[in-house]
Amino acid sequence: MITLDDPIIWKIAFPAVMLILAPIIGGLLIGIDRKLTARLQNRAGPPIVQPFYDVLKLFGKEDKIVNKTYLVFAVAYLLTVVLSTGLLLFHYDLLVITFMFGLSFIFLVLAGYSVRSQFSYVGSNRELLQMLTYEPILLLVVFLDRLVTGSFQIDAIWSFTEPAKTEPLLYTLPLALLALFLILPIQLRKSPYDIAEAHQEIAQGPVTEYTGKFLGLVTIAHFYEVFFVLWFIGLYFVQNWAVRIGLMALAFLFSIVIDNVTARLRVDQMIRQVYIIGLLLIIVNLAYILITGKWIA
Amino acid sequence: MSLIELSRKKSPWVIHVGTGGCNGCDLEILACLTPRFDASRFGVMSTGNPKHADIMLVVGPVTLKYKEIITNLYNQMPDPKVVIAVGTCASTGGIYQGCYGHCGSLDKVVPVDVYIPGCNVRPEAVIDGLVLGLDILNEKERKILEEKKKSKGAA
Questions:
Q1: Among residues A18, A22, A178, B155, which one has the fewest Cβ atoms lying within 10 Å of its Cβ?
Q2: What is the pLDDT of residues A15-36, one digit of tens each?
Q3: A241-259 burial, b for 16+ CB within 10 Å, e for fewer?
Q4: In sequence order, what are the residues at sequence separation of 6 or more whose Cβ sits closer than 8 angstroms to the Cβ of residue B5?
Q5: CA distance A205 to B47
Q6: Which residues of B touch A218 (CB under 8 A)?
Q7: In whole angstroms, what is the distance from residue A264 CA to residue A274 CA?
Q8: pLDDT in tens, A81-132
Q9: Of B117, B112, B105, B116, the residue nearest B63 (C-alpha)
Q10: Which residues on chain B are in Cβ contact (under 8 Å) with A200?
C-alpha cells in the first residue's frame, strides 16, 4: 500500500505528473498574462486558453519548409527545454540544469543563423548577447546556492546544515533571489529585455522563418520555459508549499508588472544594468554569508 | 467541428499591409486594436511577419511598384489564408480608378476573399470583415484537403 509519505510518490510520481502538466500550466500562465495585460490597458482581452488555441491552429497550418537544419534545431530546442525541466523536477544537479537551459538558447540561436533572413540573423545576434548577460548571473547564483547548501544537488536544499534545522534558501540568499528577479524578463522574453524578439523592429527574431507545426513546437517550448523559470524560483522556499507557490506567483506578477510599465531597452543598456545591479547584489549577499559564517566548504 | 477548426476560428493572426494609400484606413485598423474596439478579444494578433499570418489586411490602391511585393507576401503566407481588401481603394480602385501607375484594384493582383468598402472604413466594419474571414479560413482548408485526396486518388 502506497501512502502519501512514501518517498516513491515525491521522487517519481509527482515529478512525472508535473512534467506532463508543465506545458498546460505554462500555457495557462501566458494566457493569464495576456488577460491581465489587457485589463491593465482597459481592454477585454483574449480568453485565458488563447495560447492553446494558437498552438492548435499552428498544428493545422501548412509547413513552408526553408531547410531541414532549421527544423532539427526547433525540435532540439524543445527537447533541451523539456530535458532541463525534467532534470529540475527529478532533483538532478543544479549546475547541469543551468547549462542544459543555456543549451536550449544556443539551439534557438543556431536556428536563427541557419536561414538566410536578416531578421533571423539580427535576432540571433541579440539572443547571444542576452545569453551573455543572464548566464553569468544565473551561474553565480547557482554557485551561491552551492556555498550555502554544500552541494550542487537539489536534494541538498531540503537538508542542509543539520537535519533537524532546515532553513529556507530565502533567509540566507535574499539578494541572490533579487538577482534572479532581475534576469527574469530575459528568460521569459519580456519587456524591458525582449530585445531578441523585438517584433516591431525585427519581425520575430530567430523564429521569424518558422511556420505551421514547427512554430507550434517552439511555442510549446516557451510554455515549458515559463514553468521552468518559476519552478527554479520556487526552490528558494521548499519547506512550505503555500509560501513556495506564493513566491512563484510573486515572481510571475512581478514580470507582468515590469513588462507593462517599461519600454524596450538597447542591448548595451541591458548589459550595463544587469551586470552592475546583478553583480552588486551577488557580492553583497556573498559578503553576508561569509561574515555570518553560513557557508559550507 | 474538430478542435483544430475551432482554434483556427479563435486565433486569427493578422498582417497589415499598406500599399500606398492615404493612411486613413490604416488608422482605423489601428483603432481596432485600442480599448474601445479591442479586436484582440477574438484572438486577433497583429504580426509583421507573413509566415506567421492567417489573414492579410490590404489597405490602399495597389501601385505598380507594390504589385511584386504584395504577390511575394501572399506567396509566403502558409495555407489556409484569407485576403481582406480594406477600404474602397483596395476593393475597387476608388478615386484612383482609371489613373496611371496602379493596378486598378487588389483582386487583379491576388485573390480577395472579403471586401470591406468605405472611405474610410469604420472600425466596426473591419471587425465585421475579420469575423467573415474566419469562416472562410475553415472552408478553404476543407477544399485544400479535398483536392489533396483527389490528386492522391488520381495518382
A1: B155
A2: 888 888 889 999 999 999 989 8
A3: eebbeebbeebbeebbebb
A4: A60, B138, B141
A5: 12
A6: none
A7: 14
A8: 999 999 988 888 889 999 999 899 899 899 888 888 888 888 888 888 888 8
A9: B105
A10: 48
The DSSP element (H or E) to which B25 belongs, if any, is helix B24-32
Q: How far is A199 from chain B (nearest CA, A)?
A: 7
A66 vs A62: CA distance, rounded Å: 13
**Three cell numbers written together for A98:** 543551468
In angstroms, the CA B28 to CA B116 distance is: 12
Grid cell locating A112: 536563427
> Which residues of chain A are within 8 Å of residue B34 when distances are taken between CB atoms?
43
- Encode B62-128 in three state secondary structure: CEHHHHHHHHHHHHHCCCCCEEEEEHHHHHHCHHHCCCCCECCCHHHCCCCCEEECCCCCCHHHHHH
H helix runs in A155-266, sequence order: 155-158, 169-172, 174-187, 199-202, 212-234, 241-261
Q: Cβ A56–B47 below 8 Å, yes or no?
A: no
Interchain contact, A208 vs B51, CB within 8 Å: yes
Q: Hey, is A48 helix, strand or coil?
A: coil
Q: Kindly state the helix (H) or strand (E) to which residue A148 belongs, with its residue range.
A: helix A118-149
Query: Are the Cβ atoms of B40 and A60 closer than 8 angstroms?
Result: no
| ipTM of the complex, rounded to two decimals | 0.85
**Cβ pair A31, A222 in contact under 8 A:** no
Q: At what angle do helices A68-89 and A212-234 cross, to 10 degrees?
A: 20
Residue at A55: amino acid letter: V
Please provide the size of chain A in residues. Answer: 297
Q: Do B10 and A44 touch (CB under 8 A)?
A: no
What cell was used for B125? 466594419
Provide the grid cell at B66. Answer: 507594390
Rg (CA), chain B: 16
d(CA B9, CA A56): 11
